[in-house]
């Protein structure tokens, strides 16, 4: 008969959960389970949370002031080792950042004192705290980079306000617009992203610390004081939700996917505009590459990568949602799958925003080619509106303007080359001043209502955008 008492396995020694287990751990399972190779990125947040937790446990009587001082000093040393790159991970023991930091703390100040740190705490609320702290700070960096992109748009829009280009629907030329108006169309998208990001940060910035494994803390710890120390705006009010929730990461990824969707559309436009067929813009050499075969090529790889990264971030979002969707309350190891995609997702957003801002700031614009791409038929709506101002119903004027377009096509001449007699033959209500319609600058200046493409309307949009950048509505 086997003895009921077995020595603890070597594999389990040093682990936070080792006392329950006596059998050896499969080496593949150990590697499969470990997260230290990626969650080490959370070392600073883990240490900050541990210091706040230790401080609060002086008030509960778990720690004496001298024990807290030793723990705080020890954790500061651990942080210094991570920052200096000298922290030595113990393979097979340091399965995650929490285990690694606590193990090293015990080596520095002694296991008896270090062993009190985790009283009433679980890695479940610990990792949730680390993730929220890391993501909050990372999203604030993303916010600053998005503001930089919006500033680049506002500066460029004001600088290039005189340039007129074709506006498109269905990728067919529609009406003249200002190049700045096109820039500000994406400025409006990105401004909406900025507004939503500020909401996401607010949702992320809630503290789960002090919720334990799932049912709460048994020592009446002051969760509010810990939250305040860590810069949280408030608490997650339910302990089960606090440890089971990864919605804050999913929401951030959903936001990131929407941002990159806009970046992708912006990139697609600029890729088109940079082709010889358009010739509206040229990217700086720093953001292009050449062909290994064709010496003349200048490829917009920066924009193509920005467009491609949209698929990556969307996949990260969808992948995490699929990982979380089947998990029962409360914590399950599936939730470990939130860390790597979150880290990569945020890095992709930060890199992409910087590339986008630099591409825009260094872009060369060719207003003469934009102007040359305008054609008189793009003023057909202006011709219809000319008759509207004479009291003719728009549905009738639309039909009349269409007949003028057809006449120009049949005569194989531009619309503005039709004679006054030819126009009057289509409709006698065309007056001697009708030829003034065929003026692209006049066309854009007529669009002076809020949101339009006149110079005044565009400058007003820049003011609105600058207000959003500054944190206004």
UniProtKB/TrEMBL annotation:
GO biological process assignments: L-arginine biosynthetic process via ornithine
All copies of domain Argininosuccinate lyase C-terminal, residue ranges: 378-445
Catalytic activity entry: 2-(N(omega)-L-arginino)succinate = fumarate + L-arginine
UniProt keyword Lyase present: yes
Pfam families, per database record: ASL_C2 (PF14698), Lyase_1 (PF00206)
NCBIfam families (UniProt xref): argH
Family: Belongs to the lyase 1 family. Argininosuccinate lyase subfamily.
Protein known as: argininosuccinate lyase
């Amino acid at each position: 008969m086997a003895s009921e008492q077995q020595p603890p396995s070597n594999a389990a020694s040093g682990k936070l959960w080792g006392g329950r287990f006596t059998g050896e751990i499969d080496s593949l399972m150990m590697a499969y389970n470990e997260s230290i190779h990626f969650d080490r990125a959370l070392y600073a947040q883990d240490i900050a949370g541990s210091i706040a937790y230790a401080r609060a446990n002086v008030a509960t009587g778990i720690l004496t002031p001298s024990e807290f001082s030793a723990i705080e000093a020890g954790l500061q040393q651990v942080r210094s080792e991570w920052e200096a790159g000298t922290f030595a991970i113990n393979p097979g023991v340091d399965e995650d950042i929490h285990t690694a930091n606590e193990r090293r703390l015990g080596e520095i100040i002694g296991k008896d004192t270090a062993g009190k740190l985790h009283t009433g705490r679980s890695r479940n609320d610990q990792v949730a705290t680390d993730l929220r702290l890391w993501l909050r700070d990372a999203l604030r960096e993303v916010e600053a980079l998005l503001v930089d992109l919006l500033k680049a748009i506002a500066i460029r829009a004001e600088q290039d306000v005189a340039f007129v280009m074709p506006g498109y629907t269905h990728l067919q030329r529609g009406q003249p617009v200002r190049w700045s108006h096109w820039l500000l169309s994406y400025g409006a998208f990105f401004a909406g992203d900025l507004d939503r990001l500020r909401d996401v940060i607010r949702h992320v910035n809630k503290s789960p610390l002090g919720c334990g494994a799932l049912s709460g803390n048994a020592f009446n710890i002051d969760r509010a004081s810990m939250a305040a120390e860590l810069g949280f705006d408030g608490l997650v009010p339910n302990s089960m939700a606090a440890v089971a929730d990864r919605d804050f990461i999913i929401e951030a990824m959903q936001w990131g996917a929407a941002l990159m969707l806009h970046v992708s559309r912006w990139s697609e436009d600029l890729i088109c505009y940079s082709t010889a067929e358009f010739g509206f813009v040229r990217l700086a050499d720093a953001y292009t590459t050449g062909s290994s075969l064709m010496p003349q090529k200048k490829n917009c790889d920066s924009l193509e990568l920005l467009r491609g990264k949209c698929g990556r971030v969307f996949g990260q979002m969808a992948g995490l949602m699929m990982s979380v969707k089947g998990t029962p309350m409360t914590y399950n190891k599936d939730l470990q799958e939130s860390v790597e995609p979150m880290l990569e997702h945020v890095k992709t957003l930060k890199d992409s925003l910087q590339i986008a801002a630099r591409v825009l700031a260094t872009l060369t614009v060719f207003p003469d080619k934009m102007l040359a791409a305008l054609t008189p038929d793009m003023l057909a709506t202006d011709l219809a509106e000319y008759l509207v101002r004479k009291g003719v119903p728009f549905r009738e004027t639309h039909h009349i303007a269409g007949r003028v377009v057809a006449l120009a096509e049949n005569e194989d001449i531009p619309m503005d080359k039709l004679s006054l007699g030819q126009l009057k033959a289509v409709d006698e209500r065309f007056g001697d001043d009708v030829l003034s319609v065929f003026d692209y600058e006049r066309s854009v200046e007529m669009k002076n209502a809020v949101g339009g493409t006149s110079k005044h309307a565009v400058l007003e949009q820049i003011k609105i955008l600058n207000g959003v950048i500054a944190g206004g509505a």
